[in-house]
Amino acid sequence: MAAEAWRSIGSSVRGNLPQAIASLGTLWLMDLRVEFDDARHLLDIESGLYGRKKVVRQLAESEESLGALLSAYALSGDEQLLGWAKEVAALYEAPGKKKNQIF
Q1: Cut 0.85: pTM above it
Q2: Distance set, CA 87 to CA 12, 45, 76 (Å)
Q3: Best CA proximity match to 35, nearest among 6, 14, 62
């Protein structure tokens, strides 16, 4: 049932990357690995289409994206998600301030 719900909104989520990223932890916990991989793959697709920096800025604008990326990394062990989280976190640091080691 949940997999069917994800597939039914999948096309609309593709236009809203932060929503897809926010779903990663729930998809993993519900053992919806195909749907998790689909949502995770959107990072690569969007990055290829618009460039990684633009995607990172888009994720940083959504308050829950950093937490969602970190949660998805903690659950799945996907090192690429941690890399994305580090890039998003770097945008939150104040200019001129020494970078803190948070990971």
Answers
A1: no
A2: 25, 17, 19
A3: 6
Opening angle at CA 2, ends 14 and 85, nearest 5: 50
Mean pLDDT of 9-30: 80
Could you tell me the CA-to-CA distances from 23 to 33, 39, 70, 98, 102 in Å, in that order?
12, 8, 12, 32, 23
Rounded to an integer, what distance in angstroms lies between the CA atom of residue 62 and that of residue 92? 12
Q: pLDDT band at residue 103, thresholds of 50, 70 and 90?
A: very low
| Total domains present in the chain | 1
Q: Decide if 6 contacts 35 (C-beta within 8 A).
A: yes
**pLDDT one-digit tens code per residue, 20-65:** 999 999 999 999 999 999 999 999 999 999 999 999 998 998 888 9
Cα–Cα distance, 3 to 24 (Å, whole number): 13
Residue 42 covered by a domain: yes
Q: Is residue 102 part of a domain?
A: no
